[in-house]
Amino acid sequence: MSASDLDRLAGQLLKIAKDRLAELGQFHPFAAVVQTDGSVAQLAYNPPGRAPVVAAFLDALKDKIRDGARDGQFRAAAVCLLAQAHCPPDKRVSEAVCIQLHDDNGESIGYYAPFTRDKQGSFAWAEPFRTPGPASLFPERDSPAESTASAGAASAAAESADANVNDASAEADVNVNDAEAEGTDAKAHARADDAPAADRRSKPDLDA
Fold first, then answer.
1. Residue 66: which of 164, 141, 174, 139 has the closest Cα?
2. Distances (CA, A) of 13 to 8, 23, 29
């Protein structure tokens, strides 16, 4: 993901928001994503029947983004809604288009475009500004160090398992060799015990 993805999403969603405000005076939250091939796609939530409250729109859109991000389909995403913003430098409160930007590196940015409207429905736009955004909608990535540590731990575990197998094999060989040695000794003792009896049977009785 590059910073241009977030800039592109912010620009496209702000244009859509301005058009809807000019036409309707308001809009429901909507979202867009940058897919892995670099193309931009809009995410819609169109429930049947009466439109739900804003929170339901936001939850549904964020769930779609989380699902796609978890499956590796997106590299950046944005949710656009109407909000109240505290504008710099004096922190005055203003209506604003809020665009929550997220990327697959875990970055999250709040992009605000404040505006005022007169009684005739005309809009005047102030300078946009950015703030740290809400919690990222993308799953956390392991850092290179964590990945290396995980790989090292897996390798150490594999080596330990191999060592245990080798130790068990060596012990088995020793036990087999010991058993064979004991068997050989037992046979030798048996032959030694039988030999005197045989000698007694074969030797003549000298006293006779």
1. 139
2. 9, 15, 11
Judge contact between 33 and 64, C-beta under 8 A: no
Q: Give strand pairing partners of 40.
A: 34
Between the two ends of the chain, the Cα-to-Cα distance in Å is 113
Q: What distance in Å separates the CA atoms of residue 171 and residue 163, rounded to the nearest whole number? A: 12
- Residue 195 structure tokens: 């030999």
Closest CA to 78 of 28, 133, 152: 133
- Closest listed residue to residue 102, CA positions, set 128, 139, 129: 139
168-183 per-position pLDDT tens digit: 454 545 454 554 545 5
Q: How far is residue 110 from each of residues 79, 92, 140, 193, measured CA to CA in Å?
A: 10, 17, 19, 96
For tokens 């030798």, the residue is 188
* pTM to 2 decimal places: 0.67
